[in-house]
Structure formats: C-alpha cells, structure tokens
C-alpha cells in the first residue's frame, strides 16, 4: 500500500486544481484569439464595409442572448432610453416583447395603448417592422426600430398561431401613460380589479381601492384580472399576494449567489376578509403576474380562470457597464410555494376558458372569460 503524507497529498490536490484551471484559461485565450481572427477576416474580406464597433456590440449581445431570451446588451443610448421608459410615461406602441428562438415575440400588449387598440395579441411573432426583416436582429435592435417621434406611424407585420397569412398593422406612436389599477363594481355585488402592470405604487392603489369598498355590504366576491399583465416589480407582486393571504410562503428565488437565495412570507391579515376571489390569467400574464396567481393558487385562496400563463419565471438585474451602457442579466429563478418553477411552464388555471373569437376584448361584452367568472360567483 502506498501512503501519502497529508502535506504532500494537499500539494498534489492543489497542483491538480491549478493545472486544470491553467488548462481552462489556455482554452479561453485560444478562443479569444480565434474571435479576434474572425473579426479581422470580416473587416478585411466581407463583401460590404463593416463597422467594427457594431460588430462587437452584436457579438456581446449574441453571447448574452445565447444564455436565455431575457438577457441582453444595452448600448449607452438604449440604456438611457430604458431609464426614461421606466418612469411611467413614454412614447411608443405599448407592448412588452421578448425573444423566442431568435424571433421577437409579443409578451403582452398594454391596455388602451396603440398596440392593444390595433389588435396585436400576446404570442404574436413580429417578422417585419416597416418592411425591415426582424429575423436575426437582437431584441434591442427591434426596440430601436419601433421607436420614433410621437404621432408618427409604423407598420408591424406579425405571424399568429392558427392563421396562415401574415397580419399587417399600421399603428401611430403615442405617449404611453401607465395607469396600472382600475376598479369597477359589477352588478353592485362584485368588485372587479384590473391590474395591467406592477409599478412602484400598484399595491398602494389596490389597497386604497379595496379599503374604499369596506362600507359596501353588498360585495360578495372579488375578481383580480391579470390578463395581458407582463409583470414588473417583484416587491409589488409580494405585497399584492400578501393582501389576500393570512400566512405561508409567497415566492422564493434560487441563484448561484447565496445572497440571491431568498423566501418571502405572507403576514397575517386578509384585506378582503376571506371573501371569494377569482384571478383571471392568459398567455399575456407573465413574471410578477404569475407569482401572484401561482401563490394564490398554491394556497387555494383563489380560483384561477383563463388560459395558461406565459412562463417567465426568472429575475433580471440591470448591470451598468463602463461605457455607460448596461447588460440585462438573469441572476435567479422564481419558485412557487409548491416548489415548482414558473420558467417555460407558467401557471395552469384551475378552470380553462379559451378566448371565444377574434372579436374578444378584455372587460367588454365579448369577454367570455370575465363572463364565466361572474357566472361562477353568482352561481
């Protein structure tokens, strides 16, 4: 038997780790050299003249988008525009978009915006913007193509599931004012709350509106409408879920970084005092919407009606760069109280109700999903 003394054994292990690390570094340096060689060949021999700076931006973006559909590079200009957009008022079409297999996909059109009024739907694939092919372009490039002066028009060509012919929409850009919460009484006994996004004051608006109904003894149920809600702030999703729960886990995040592994729990106190709650979701319900619907479903606090949600269960962080640009990087994933991940799966409704026709419009006479919820409440 060969005996290895502990100091020698430790040295042996350290040398093995160093050797492996050194070998991996050499491989990375070889790849970097290869990338430089490819860039040089493109600059010298490609049929058209190429801007090396744009090539580098595309390479960075390609690297990030190879990770998942939500990671992306933002140039200094794009980063500045994004900071303007998140203030709640901006010029545009009113859609949340993402990437799927290299194609720009509409996550959700925002209520009462040019996009929703024109007829764009969650799940539509954008193939052309003003006759410019979008295939192969980054998410940031697609967003830049859609930007323009308020009052100017834009032509969007989309492909929609179940329809063979491409659909063309002419849309006029407008100032988009995000008003995230609306409440109305239906038949004087049902409180219908429409939440279109999770902004920094959404929970305050909902709490204020619900408390404003506290003296109304006729209300026997609430409908929380999260359809075509692309999400927003995690903190707001937690607060809004907490309004309807007495206790228990709301959501957790898991990451490579221990500091990002967290759990959030409900505090005692149900804002609607145990009254019946129905939550409406569809394919345009994503991210924070799925956290709320999933938590309420797992705790059996609400009946979920509609269609399967989008399946965006990841946390993105905006990380500034030295060039005044930034990267949007996925740093963690959401998990429901049941332990299930939302990513690429979404939340399945308790009762599936599909949109009935092309004339379907949320919160209107053609809204068969809302009508079903009302019948259930009054049943």
Kindly summarize this structure in a few lines.
The chain has 379 residues and is of the alpha+beta class. It has nine helices and 19 strands. The strands form four sheets. Strands 3, 4, 5, 6, 7 and 8 form a six-stranded antiparallel beta sheet that branches. It has a six-stranded mixed beta sheet with strand order 10-11-12-15-16-19, sandwiched between helices. Strands 1, 13, 14, 17 and 18 form a five-stranded antiparallel beta sheet that branches.
Structural account:
The protein is an alpha+beta fold. It has two domains: 91-176, PDZ domain (Pdz3 Domain); 179-315 and 330-378, Alpha-Beta Complex (2-enoyl-CoA Hydratase, Chain A, domain 1), CATH 3.90.226.10. It is 31% helix and 26% strand. It has helices at 6-45, 52-65, 76-85, 114-118, 139-146, 202-211, 234-242, 288-298, 368-378; strands spanning 72-74, 89-92, 95-100, 103-109, 125-129, 132-133, 153-159, 167-172, 174-177, 181-186, 190-195, 221-225, 249-254, 262-265, 276-281, 303-306, 314-320, 326-335, 351-352. Strands 3, 4, 5, 6, 7 and 8 form a six-stranded antiparallel sheet that branches. The longest helix is centred in the N-terminal third of the chain and has 40 residues, at 6-45. The radius of gyration is 25 Å and the shape is globular. The N and C termini lie far apart (80 Å). 34% of the residues are buried.
């Amino acid at each position: 038997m060969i005996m290895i003394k502990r100091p020698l054994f430790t040295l042996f292990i350290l040398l093995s780790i160093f050797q492996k690390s050194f070998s991996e570094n050499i491989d990375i340096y070889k790849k970097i050299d290869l990338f430089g060689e490819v860039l040089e060949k493109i600059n010298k021999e490609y049929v058209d003249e190429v801007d090396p700076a744009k090539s580098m931006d595309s390479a960075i973006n390609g690297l990030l988008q190879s990770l998942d559909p939500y990671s992306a590079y933002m140039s200094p200009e794009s980063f500045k525009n994004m900071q303007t957009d998140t203030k709640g008022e901006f010029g545009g079409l009113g859609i949340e978009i993402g990437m799927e297999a290299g194609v720009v996909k509409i996550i959700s059109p925002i209520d009462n915006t040019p996009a929703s009024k024109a007829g764009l739907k969650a799940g539509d694939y954008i193939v052309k913007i003003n006759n410019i092919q979008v295939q192969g372009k980054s998410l940031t490039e697609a967003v830049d193509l859609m930007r323009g002066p308020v009052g100017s028009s834009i032509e969007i060509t989309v492909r929609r599931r179940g329809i063979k012919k491409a659909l063309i929409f002419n849309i006029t850009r407008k100032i988009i004012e995000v008003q995230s919460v609306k409440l109305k009484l239906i038949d004087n006994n049902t409180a219908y709350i429409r939440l279109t996004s999770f902004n920094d004051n959404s929970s305050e608006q909902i709490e204020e509106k619900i408390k404003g109904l506290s003296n109304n003894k006729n209300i026997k149920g609430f409908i929380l409408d999260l359809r075509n809600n692309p999400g927003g702030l995690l903190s707001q999703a937690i607060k809004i879920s907490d309004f309807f729960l007495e206790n228990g886990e709301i959501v957790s995040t898991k990451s490579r970084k221990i500091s990002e592994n967290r759990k959030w729990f409900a505090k005692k106190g149900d804002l609607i005092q145990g009254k019946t709650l129905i939550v409406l979701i569809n394919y345009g319900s994503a991210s924070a919407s799925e956290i709320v619907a999933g938590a309420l479903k797992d705790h059996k606090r609400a009946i979920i009606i509609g269609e399967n949600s989008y399946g965006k269960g990841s946390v993105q962080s905006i990380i500034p760069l030295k060039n005044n640009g930034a990267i949007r990087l996925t740093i963690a994933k959401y998990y429901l109280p049941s332990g299930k991940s939302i990513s690429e799966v979404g939340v399945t409704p308790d009762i599936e109700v599909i949109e009935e026709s092309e004339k379907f419009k949320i919160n209107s006479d053609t809204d068969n999903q809302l009508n079903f919820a009302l019948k259930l409440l009054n049943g």
